[in-house]
Amino acid sequence: xxxGFIALALSTLLAQAPADARQNRTPQTDHTVPAARGTRLAIxxxxxxxxxHAWEKDAVRVQARHSSRAKINVRxxxxxINVDAVTDRGPTGSIDYDISAPAWMPIKVEGQYDYISVEGxxxxxxxxxxxxxxxxxxxxxxxxxxxxxxxxxxxxxxKLTLSSVNEEIKVTGATGExxxxxxxxxxxxxxxxxxxxxxxxxxxxxxxxGRLADRGHYSFTNHDGDIELLVPENxxxxxxxxxxxxxxxxxxxxxxxxASQVRRGRRVSYTLGNGSAEVELESFGGxxxxxxxxxxxxxxxx
Length: 302
Prior knowledge:
Blueprint (H helix, E strand, L loop, with lengths): L1 H23 L4 E6 L5 E16 L3 E7 L4 E8 L2 E8 L7 E8 L4 E13 L5 E7 L2 E6 L2 E7 L2 E6 L3 E5 L4 E6 L3 E7 L2 E6 L3 E8 L2 E5 L6 E8 L2 E4 L6 E7 L4 E3 L17 E5 L4 E7 L4 E4 L11
Parallel strand pairs: 2-5, 2-6, 2-7, 7-8, 7-9, 8-10, 9-11, 10-12, 11-13, 12-14, 13-15, 14-16, 15-17, 16-18, 17-19, 18-23, 19-24, 20-23, 21-24
Antiparallel strand pairs: 1-3, 3-6, 4-5, 20-22
C-alpha cells in the first residue's frame, strides 16, 4: 500500500513538473497572427513540448521557450499558418510551445521527440511523433500516432484513429467512431458511447466499458492478451466469439451454447436482448470475458 502511494505521488509530480516549469519560464518568442476561417495550423518540432489549447479569438498565439540559437518562424502561406524553427549555428535544441488557436481550426503536428497535448479544438486534428506521449482532451475528430509513446484521449465527439507501437492507448468518454491499434500495449476504453469501435493489439489486454449502441458495430482482436467487455445487461447485442488458446466466459444473460462445450477456434454466437449491435471478439492467446459494469477486472490486473 505504501509503495503504491509513493509511486502514485511520484507519477503525479512528474506529470505536473513539465507544465510548472513551462509556466515559470519566460517565453523567448511571443507572436500572434490573425486566422481567417478556413485557415489550418501546421507545426513541426524535433524535440520538446507542444501544448495547444482553444480560445475564442480568430487568431493564433505562439509562445515558445528555446535557446538563443533558435529562431521561431510563424508565417501564413495561402490558407496555412506554419510554425517551425531554424538556426544559424548548431542544432536548435528542444523547444517548448504554448499555442492558443481557435476551436474551429484544423491542426497538424509533426515531431520526433515531443510530448504533445491538444485541448478544446474541434477542427480536425492530426498528431504524429516518434517518441513521446500524446494527450487529447475535449476534441472533435483526431488522428494520433506515436511509436514510443502512450496515447490518451479524454472526451471526443468525432472519429478517432489512434496508433501506438510500444505503449498503451486510453480513451475515455468518446461518442464518435474509434479505431485503435497497438503492438505492445493495452487498449482501455471507458465510459464509451461510440456506435462503432475497432480495436486490435498484439501484446496487451483490451478492455471496453460502456454502452453498445443499437445497430452499432464493434470489433476486438487480440493475439496475446485478454479481451474484457463490461456492458449493461440490458444491452442489445450479438457477440460473435472465437478463442483459439484461451477461454470464453460471461456473466451476462446471453443466449447461446454452453461455453464449456465450445471447441477452440470455432466461431460461436451469443445473443443479448434483441441482438441489434454486432460485436466481433477474437483472441489467439488470451481469454474473452463479458462482464457487467463495475465488475472486477481480470486476475492479472488485480
